[in-house]
Design brief:
Number of helices: 15
Radius of gyration: 24 Å
Helix content: 25-40%
Structural class: alpha/beta
Shape: elongated
Largest sheet: 9 strands, mixed
Oligomer: single chain
């Protein structure tokens, strides 16, 4: 039986409702009785980095733009991120490097999207510095996978804070620049306004239905809609279906509950990269809306599983740590690394605060989370276990008798001999521009009591999956055809697979925000 696109669309909407996957978003057909409460040429859903970039670009192309944000403040993940964005020295070499990251994990790569991204990163510096006065930026990082061809060209930048201004996180510095450009242009915004449905005329997107002050309103999008709603980090149903493991936390904006994913599905969108995400091992810290990071400044620490054994080099790239932890033991039918445990000694604790040096996360940037300097608060509340011996610590964690002692002894012996014989964790860091000389110590024995342990859980920085897009930023349906007047940008339907180069989500948000904004602005307006 041949199925037409419109038949598929109707069926996909019906099926989505049947399985309950579009609980907070749907597509609504235009009828002769539909009344419009507001209108704009371009409606952007989501006021983070991607939404702001799309709105700025569409406005500058001559379109009237409205940004709709469900949270009571804009920013999305961009504002609470580490604020990094990639600008390579050479876009051709960067393409080779990024293509290699897909090959690492056999992820689906779109050649045209990669070309467009690399070209767009080459334009970011001029675009960003043109958005404000005296905009400064600086290099803070480099390639995450130095063995890939083209790694030397990768540079990660941040926006410099305004001299004499209030101290802000790097994510806020980036987003404040984008938000300021939105405000300077007089682009309208609606906050505390969730979008509950896309309004369609046949296969074509013609507007959205929103919930504003307890009332439903219809907003006409004369040229089109840009989805820039972020990922599904805080949607339990999506996490259950698209990730391995359980107990998964997140550090970003709690508003990322998969709304754009469901809106796109309601229009029959094709999904990709649903099993791709950036995630580390973090801590469930009581009293905060999100999980938090923990990053020892000292070098005497290891991870162990529920058997009291190490299971990985602890120096695996931070964006990939969840893949290490989400291991299903098919014999015992369990996840022996969820939770796992960070084990460290007093010498490591004395090296400095346990918070991440990146300064990213909602708990840090919006709720004021800080680890206590001596960890006494965390010990008192039971978040950290503290013991005078490794054997005592093992008992507190209910680990198999004697195993943690063996694990720590093996670690100490290896480090003193100058080689991690189990997982190859380096003893000293390598210099940024060289692979031949040793830098600071990053591995040390665990032998100076008291000793500490804390439970670690998979913790999302962001998800990458969502509707697939083409090089114009148009959302594609299940057959690979553009859904008329529907665009997407940002981590929703990101181009990245499981192996993720840091600072490429913010870069992609701006690059494809600009691409989506430019192309939706060229659409012929509806009457």
């Amino acid at each position: 039986m041949n199925i037409t696109k419109s038949q598929f669309l109707k069926g996909s909407v019906a099926s989505a409702f049947a399985i309950g996957s579009v609980a907070s978003a749907s597509a609504k057909a235009l009828t002769p009785d539909t009344k419009w409460d507001d209108e704009a040429d371009v409606v952007v859903i989501g006021f983070g980095g991607a939404g702001a970039s799309a709105a700025i670009t569409a406005h500058d192309a001559g379109s009237n733009v409205l940004i709709i944000e469900k949270m009571d403040a804009p920013g999305g993940n961009t504002a609470v991120s580490a604020g990094g964005f990639m600008i390579p020295d050479d876009i051709n070499q960067a393409r080779k490097y990024l293509a290699g990251s897909y090959q690492y994990c056999h992820a689906e790569m779109d050649e045209q999207l990669l070309d467009a991204f690399c070209k767009g990163t080459g334009e970011l510096r001029d675009w960003l510095t043109g958005l404000g006065d005296n905009v400064g930026m600086f290099v803070y990082g480099y390639a995450g996978f130095k063995n890939l061809e083209g790694a030397d060209t990768i540079k990660r930048y941040r926006i410099r804070g305004q001299k004499g201004g209030p101290k802000k996180g790097s994510g806020d510095c980036l987003f404040d620049l984008l938000k300021g450009a939105v405000e300077k242009r007089g682009i309208r915004t609606m906050l505390s306004t969730p979008v509950v449905a896309i309004i369609r005329d046949g296969d074509e997107v013609v507007g959205v239905e929103v919930q504003k002050n307890g009332q439903k309103q219809n907003i006409k999008a004369k040229k089109g809609v840009v989805l820039a709603t972020g990922g599904y980090e805080f949607d339990p149903e999506s996490l259950q279906n698209y990730t391995m493991g359980y107990g998964i936390g997140a550090i970003g904006n709690p508003g990322n509950t998969g709304d754009g994913l469901r809106l796109a599905q309601s229009m029959g969108a094709k999904l990709w990269h649903m099993n791709a995400y950036s995630a580390f091992l973090g801590v469930r810290y009581p009293g905060y809306k999100t999980s938090v990071s923990i990053s020892p400044k000292g070098a005497g620490y290891i991870w162990v599983d529920q058997d009291g054994k190490r299971f990985s080099s602890e120096k695996v790239d931070g964006h990939c740590q969840m893949y290490v932890a989400s291991h299903l033991d098919a014999v015992r039918h369990c996840y022996p690394r969820i939770p796992c445990y960070l084990i460290f000694d007093q010498a490591t604790a004395d090296k400095g605060p346990m918070g991440s040096g990146l300064g990213s996360g909602y708990a840090i940037n919006r709720e004021g989370h800080r680890w206590s300097k001596d960890l006494s608060k965390e010990v008192e509340m039971g978040l950290l276990k503290k013991a005078n011996s490794i054997a005592e610590l093992s008992k507190m964690l209910n680990l198999p008798e004697g195993q943690l002692e063996k694990t720590v002894e093996k670690w100490n012996t290896d480090v003193k001999a100058g080689k991690d014989t189990e997982f190859g964790r380096p003893i000293r860091a390598k210099g940024k521009g060289s692979y031949t000389f040793d830098g600071p110590e990053i591995s040390a024995p665990i032998e100076n009591g008291p000793f500490y342990a804390v439970e670690l859980y998979p913790t999302l920085v962001n998800t990458q999956g969502g509707p697939r897009k083409n090089v114009k930023g148009q959302v594609l349906d299940a057959f690979g055809n553009p859904i008329p007047r529907l665009y997407v940008a940002g981590e929703l339907g990101s181009m990245w697979g499981p192996i993720y180069q840091g600072a490429c989500n913010n870069a992609e948000s701006m690059v494809f925000g600009r691409i989506a904004g430019a192309n939706v602005a060229q659409e012929t307006p509806l009457k």
